[in-house]
Predict the structure.
Amino acid sequence: MTTIEELAAEVAELRRRVDASESVLGIHALKARYGELLDGRFSAEGVVGDSELQRIADEAATLFSVDGVWDGGPGLGRATGRPAIAARLRASTLSFSRHLFVKPRIEVDGDRARGRWDLLCPCRRPDGTSYWMCGFEDDEYARTEGTWLHRSMRLTTLFMAPVAEGWTRILA
């Protein structure tokens, strides 16, 4: 017969596992919203208007902790803190992007977590040249008041391959 202590230990373990599973789902939602906002900076005509761009950049910055770090690597720079992250995201180097985050590897430890996401991103520069960008993002997360936020995000670009014909017709 199972003892009360054994049942209590089993319930505690189940609670830990449920919390870890819900945390992974919360981090997936966080990353999806981040990608959605980054791509929302562009319309079929190019970069959205200034007020919409500011709204999007400000919202994207709220997905980071107050002292969060956005690190785009040598080519894109680094920003620390929400105001600096929002300013960096308003200064887009592209006229189109579509961030495809795949193969998440997430490790949760209480209110902290780490993750790596592979990234494939068709993108276009303002001069009209189109590229496939491939890399990965290493993230650190913190749960603050029940909500998962980026503590840091670091992009490593593996390659940018030009696309001969390019993304000449953006439909949406």
Summary: The first helix runs from residue 4 to 39.
